[in-house]
Design brief:
Elements: E1 4-10, H1 16-34, E2 37-42, H2 56-63, E3 68-72, H3 78-85, H4 88-98, E4 110-112, E5 120-122, H5 123-133, E6 147-151, H6 167-173, E7 178-180, E8 187-188, H7 192-201, E9 206-212, E10 219-224, E11 231-232, E12 238-242, H8 243-246, H9 249-260, H10 271-285
Parallel strand pairs: 1-2, 1-6, 2-3
Antiparallel strand pairs: 4-5, 6-12, 7-12, 8-11, 9-10
Helix pairs in contact: 1-2, 5-10, 7-9
């Protein structure tokens, strides 16, 4: 099926060894037969940032006969984010969580979460959440594909898929928006601002919650006019999505406000929240 693509994302060529394992597991599990194209997004130029260890030709040899393409995201560098893309208020907020000054901040700098919990995430990790929540769906590298099979770069398949396992066929036959491997995978707490964004896009409607069927095979939204409630989310490490749904104007309007309406690197723009909300709101709109 030529409109299917396997996708992941890394920060730089320093992920070479990890990607070698990732590709090996995918190939032996199913893609030596399916031969879906593989796209690996990278924030930094892959071979230049790999400290002499990055080798695209080796990745291709592991994945063959499937084609591997390394795609530079082509979004601002960290320096450009700090110098041109962020307001003074955003910078103050970022530095208050990350401690080092402007010259010391890197993609690997770890910062506290805004809500004060114990977790610390790198600037690179916070960027990937923004990229996956909004930018990825309309990225030019994915234009010719409809179905995206996402695996985190550290999500390794544990066993070979049976020959009769074909999740893409199921996606097509049942006209699914998303097929997920894990739900629930955490909870997004009550968020008044997110509720306002939902109402502004989806005809004054918001989500009071997500409900799972008794057989645990489907989820659907509880729609209401009241404030946005707690939201259990789909796990982001592996899922399959119909890109045509996520590219719809109404969903793109929501994602743009959700991601670009907040401070850069503030962790509010979460890819798991984005995938869950678009999937259940698409079901509501139908």
């Amino acid at each position: 099926n030529t409109n299917v693509v396997i996708v992941t994302k890394v920060l730089s060529g320093l992920s070479q060894k990890q990607l070698e394992s990732w590709l090996c597991f995918i190939s032996h599990a199913f893609n030596d037969k399916k031969t879906y194209d593989i796209i690996i997004f990278t924030t930094q130029p892959y071979e230049e940032s790999g400290a002499g260890k990055a080798d695209i030709s080796k990745l291709q040899s592991i994945a063959k006969p499937a084609k591997v393409t390394i795609v530079l995201e082509s979004y601002p560098t960290l320096e450009e984010h700090l110098d041109r893309m962020m307001t003074k208020e955003e910078l103050i907020f970022l530095y208050s969580r990350c401690h080092p000054g402007r010259s010391e901040l890197t993609w690997d700098t770890h910062c506290t979460d805004p809500d004060g919990n114990q977790y610390r995430n790198s600037v690179g990790y916070m960027w990937q959440a923004e990229f996956r929540a909004y930018h990825i769906w309309t990225h030019p590298a994915l234009t010719n594909y409809r179905y995206m099979m996402w695996f985190d770069a550290d999500a390794l398949i544990g066993k070979a898929w049976d020959d009769d396992v074909d999740p893409i066929r199921v996606m097509i036959e049942r006209k699914l928006t998303v097929m997920y491997s894990c739900y629930p995978y955490g909870t997004h707490s009550r968020d008044e601002e997110l509720g306002k964004i939902l109402k502004s896009v989806y005809n004054n409607r918001t989500i009071c919650g997500v409900i799972q069927t008794k057989d645990e095979k489907h989820i659907y939204p509880k729609i209401c006019k009241e404030d946005y409630g707690k939201l259990q989310v789909i796990g982001g490490n592996h899922h399959i999505t119909d890109l045509n749904v996520f590219r719809k104007d109404i969903h793109q309007r929501f994602l743009k406000k959700f991601v670009l309406g907040n401070f850069h690197f503030d962790r509010k723009a979460d890819d798991q929240v984005a995938v869950t909300i678009i999937s259940v709101m698409e079901q509501y709109l139908q």
